[in-house]
Design brief:
The protein is α+β, with helices and mostly antiparallel strands and 272 residues long. The chain has two domains: 123 residues, 3-Layer(aba) Sandwich (Rossmann fold), CATH 3.40.50.170; 109 residues, Roll (Methionyl-tRNA Fmet Formyltransferase, Chain A, domain 2). Helices cover 26% and strands 25% of the residues. Strands 7, 8, 9, 10, 11, 12 and 13 form a seven-stranded antiparallel beta sheet that branches. Strands 1-2-4-5 form a four-stranded mixed beta sheet. A hairpin with a 2-residue loop joins strand 7 and strand 8. Helix 4 packs antiparallel against helix 6. The radius of gyration is 23 Å and the shape is elongated. The chain starts with a helix and ends with a strand.
């Protein structure tokens, strides 16, 4: 039961959950509602043409990126993985394509220094909620100007797969850090230690000789230091300081608490 369904039931609003909007029965059910508008957010499916034509004001999508950048399923994580300094919300009128419809409104948001997939999702949800209300009020009052999406700058945010969260320590520390943050809270960046899954929930790029540049590390995945400040792991270039981690079947711990029970200095993290 989603948050939307729970809130609707609390307010006594009817909830319909058709398996597919392609079926004639589902379309008839929507038609009987005599919709003014239809709004989707993270819906994941393309609405059939017959459904797009039903609402008087049209069908609106609350999309978590500044279109045309990051069309598709996972715009929040893809923006973090790419190191985008800004993202935002776009309200678009839906058409038959994948996030290709004309733009009606947008609002920009700066990505914070320690942003994670979870924190960015929550900030964008508040922004998107406010912007769709403004847009619907404007559409009902006097209509909204439409702007076609430019072809220049189109990128696609493919669905996230768990395999992407596996850490390859041969990669550079800033890239691994972006994965740690993008994949928090799901699917969570992970590595292996002594054959056991070790999830990395929080990290930062460490200062020091390896972090300052120069040649590649001769020993990616090696734990260079393990202190209450964090667990420093050599990467392809630079050092990642792990701040919060979790052994399979255990709770997540700050690095300082983790090393009280586990000896890590000189250990090696490997790729599953």
């Amino acid at each position: 039961m989603s948050a939307v369904k729970r809130r609707a039931l609390e307010l006594g609003i009817g909830v319909h959950q058709p398996q597919s909007l392609k079926s004639p029965d589902a379309q008839a059910e929507l038609r009987d509602l005599e919709l003014d508008c239809l709004v989707v957010a993270a819906y994941g499916l393309i609405l059939p043409p017959a459904v797009l034509e039903l609402p008087g004001l049209g069908c609106f999508n609350v999309h978590a990126s500044l279109l045309p950048r990051w069309r598709g399923a996972a715009p929040i994580q893809r923006a973090l993985l790419a190191g985008d300094p800004f993202t935002g919300i776009t309200i678009m009128r839906m058409d038959a394509g994948l996030d290709t419809g004309p733009m009606l409104a947008h609002r920009e948001l700066a990505v914070a220094d320690r942003e994670t997939g979870g924190t960015l999702h929550d900030r964008l949800s508040v922004l998107g909620a406010a912007l769709i209300v403004e847009s619907l009020d404007a559409a009902a009052a006097h209509g909204l100007a439409e702007t076609a999406q430019p072809e220049l700058g189109v990128t696609y945010a493919g669905k996230i797969h768990k395999a992407e969260a596996v850490i390859d320590w041969r990669e550079d520390a800033p890239l691994i850090l972006r994965k740690v943050r993008a994949f928090n809270p799901w699917p969570v960046a992970e590595t292996l230690w002594q054959g056991t899954q070790l999830r990395v929930w929080d990290a930062e790029v460490a200062a020091g000789p390896l972090a300052a540049g120069g040649g590649p590390s001769p020993d990616p995945g090696k734990v260079m230091a393990a202190t209450s400040a964090g667990i420093d792991v050599a990467c392809g270039h630079g050092v990642l300081r792990v701040l919060r981690l979790q052994l399979a079947g255990r709770k997540a711990l700050a690095a300082g608490d983790f090393i009280k029970a586990q000896r890590l200095e000189g250990a090696r993290f490997t790729t599953p």
